[in-house]
Design a protein that fits this description.
Blueprint: H1 3-12, H2 29-53, E1 59-61, E2 66-68, H3 76-87, H4 91-104, E3 112-114, H5 115-133, H6 148-160, E4 174-176, E5 188-190, H7 191-195, H8 198-208, H9 212-225, E6 237-239, E7 245-247, E8 249-250, H10 257-270, H11 273-289, E9 291-292, E10 295-296, E11 298-300, E12 306-308, E13 310-312, H12 318-325, H13 328-345, E14 351-353, E15 358-359, H14 371-383, H15 387-403, E16 411-414, E17 419-421, H16 427-444, H17 449-452, E18 457-459, E19 465-467, H18 470-473, H19 498-501, H20 542-545, H21 556-564, E20 568-570, E21 576-577, E22 599-600, E23 603-605
Parallel strand pairs: 20-23
Antiparallel strand pairs: 1-2, 3-4, 5-6, 6-7, 8-11, 9-10, 11-12, 13-14, 14-15, 16-17, 18-19, 21-22
Helix pairs in contact: 2-15, 2-16, 3-4, 3-5, 3-16, 5-6, 5-8, 6-8, 8-9, 10-11, 12-13, 12-14, 13-14, 14-15, 14-16
């Protein structure tokens, strides 16, 4: 079938093909409470199963009630579950878990691990739990806690630094925690693998006052974006030495998904406009070339020729990301289409062929993924439309009926026959259950750290809670207000050196990376970087936080740079940050707490632009 005809067919597929006319009876307020409690019980059925039968191994085998090491053999599921315990208000188990990890976990082991998975699951889990356990304002502070998780996170991140020693700045896919990068390590990595490190590494730089972590993760993003095609698409896999794309299929799913996610979230968390500008361009290209309303396809990154008319289950995060960007109308349509696949099978298969309208051969499994539930939560938070509670209820029923097993919840190896497999990924407790619980708690009248806590939160791609605090989001600001994280004794720039890289505050013996390779990188920032706690060009978000500020003495360079910036053209979809479709909806980003008016991204729409809002 010719590509244009196939795309037309895809666009004509009705969203309610499998849904029917109704999503079911509306979920009442009382039922929301019952569903929230059911999700809580779901979490503890799986968590207790892990602790009783698998701990301290990485993950649970829920059918046989055993354990297996899948990443590094360091209690992966426990680390991934820490902030979920805090979110549920389980002070006793959160405290006990943090104390056990602080006393028993170490990373000086001869294990080769994935940079991507280790960053989002282990590093992110440690950082999130540290920020909760160390802060009185969260209501979960542990009095005896002495930054043990932060020291572990810094130690782990330093052990991953050798992976970034490449000509492109894009890291290897794996690293040995004791010996660095193996000489036979593959030079091919995924776009998501290199572009989904900025949140965890950026926060670590702010917590440790060491620029190295933020620099290497940002250089990786720059290295990927510098090699985009002329139509601003990126491929799926790239050679980290030559910079050549080895797989040129562009999409929003497998191997690319969280690259887009972290561009926007890095801006929301850090206020770094470079990430915003890249996101604008990348998002515009995705909507122009990948969007076949309401579905998304894969195309050649250079020609935009159709490659693969496939709904990939990892695409299901996209409507949630669109909510954060403020592009809600296409998010609603796409979520309806994706949920129709869940309705048909009771789960979303890894691949659903949009040409045959069947499960893609070899992609029939459902490994308890959270992405569709994540988007359901964000759309309900933005719109308060009860259809998303109905969707959440159906998803919960499917998990309870089809995936629940003896000691936890099982992978579904075939969504057509609901065949169970003896494995439970750690992200089931870190994300899948978390988003379901947040959905129903929001409807029941929220009483949790995210909705009622002292901070707004950005969720990592693993669902970890990353708070928008002055220490994290305002560290580059020149500020003079009460409560600011600015120390008079620490206002001067502290540059990273090889000597400082050898210092590990945890005291453990570690083989560190030689940071001199940063000076060789062509993607290192050409402008001076201000100290992580102190001076900066100016306070960008003073009104957002209701604070006063003092402008720096010399702001001429900033004004000059600002005048040279050109607005970004948006041809099909305008990107609206911090939109407020519902008066109660509040974006989890470092932006307006007091002004409810939309803050538009700088843009210039062409006459042919289709306004979606």
């Amino acid at each position: 079938m010719e590509a244009p005809k196939l795309l037309l067919l895809i666009m004509l597929i009705p969203c309610d093909l499998f849904i029917g006319k109704s999503l079911g009876d509306g979920v009442t307020h009382e039922e929301s409470k019952e569903l929230r409690d059911e999700v809580r019980e779901m979490f503890y059925h799986a968590f207790n199963g892990y602790m009783n039968h698998a701990f301290p191994r990485d993950e649970l085998r829920p059918l046989s009630c055993g354990g297996e090491d899948t990443l590094g053999g360091y209690a992966l599921t426990l680390i991934d579950s820490l902030d979920t315990l805090a979110l549920l208000g389980d002070r006793e188990r959160f405290t006990a878990s943090v104390e056990w990890i602080g006393k028993n976990l170490r990373f000086d082991i001869n294990k080769t691990v994935s940079i991507f998975e280790t960053t989002i699951r282990i590093l992110g889990g440690l950082i999130s739990a540290h920020l909760i356990a160390s802060d009185q304002n969260t209501g979960m502070r542990i009095p005896s806690y002495d930054d043990e998780l932060l020291h572990l996170a810094e130690d782990l991140a330093r052990r991953m630094l050798p992976a970034f020693d490449t000509p492109t700045g894009i890291p290897f896919g794996s690293v040995n925690l004791l010996h660095g990068v193996d000489e036979n390590e593959s030079k091919i990595t995924s776009t998501a693998g290199g572009g989904t490190l900025t949140l965890e590494f950026g926060i670590l730089s702010r917590l440790t006052n060491d620029l190295i972590f933020e620099q290497v993760s940002k250089n990786a993003v720059r290295g990927l974006w510098a090699r985009r095609s002329k139509i601003n698409l990126v491929g799926a896999h790239i050679d980290v030495f030559s910079g050549e794309w080895t797989q040129k299929d562009a999409g929003i799913g497998t191997s690319i998904d969280s690259f887009y996610e972290y561009l926007l979230k890095a801006y929301l968390l850090f206020g770094d406009e470079e990430y915003l500008f890249i996101f604008q361009e990348a998002y515009k290209a995705a909507m122009n070339y990948l969007f076949s309303d309401p579905w998304y396809v894969e195309v050649n990154m250079n020609s935009a020729a159709l490659v693969w008319p496939l709904f990939n289950s990892l695409q299901a995060f996209w409507p949630g990301l669109q909510v954060l960007a403020g592009d809600i109308e296409p998010a609603i349509r796409t979520h309806a289409a994706f949920f129709s696949v869940w309705k048909r099978y009771g789960f979303t298969p890894e691949g659903f062929n949009l040409a045959t309208l069947r499960v893609q051969q070899g992609q029939k499994s459902y490994p308890l993924r959270p992405e569709l539930i994540e988007s359901t939560y964000w759309l309900y938070k933005a719109t308060r439309d009860p259809r998303y509670l109905d969707a959440g209820r159906e998803i919960l029923a499917s998990l309870q009926y089809g995936a629940r097993c003896t000691c936890g919840y099982c992978h579904i190896s075939d969504v057509e026959f609901h065949k169970q497999e003896d494995h439970m990924e750690s992200f089931f407790l870190a994300e899948t259950v978390k988003y379901l619980w947040l959905l129903f708690d929001l409807a029941a009248g929220p009483d949790n750290l995210v909705e009622n806590g002292p901070y707004k939160y950005v969720f990592s791609t693993e669902g970890h809670l990353l708070p928008v605090t002055p220490q994290i989001s305002l560290v580059r600001e020149h500020c003079s207000y009460f409560g600011a994280y600015c120390r008079n004794s620490n206002l001067r720039l502290k540059t990273h050196s090889a000597e400082s890289a050898q210092t590990n505050s945890s005291g453990s013996q570690t083989r560190h990376a030689d940071s001199s390779f940063l000076s060789r990188s062509s993607y290192q920032s050409s402008s001076p970087v201000s100290g992580l706690k102190g001076l900066c060009p100016g306070l960008t978000y003073e009104q957002r936080f209701g604070i006063s500020f003092m402008s720096p003495v010399d702001s001429s360079s900033e004004d000059e740079n600002s005048s040279q910036r050109k607005p970004t053209e948006v041809q099909r979809h305008s990107v609206l940050l911090n939109s407020n479709p519902n008066p109660e909806f509040s974006l989890s980003g470092p932006h307006n707490d007091h002004d409810n008016s939309p803050a538009r991204v700088p843009q210039e729409e062409s006459p042919s632009s289709k306004q979606k809002r």
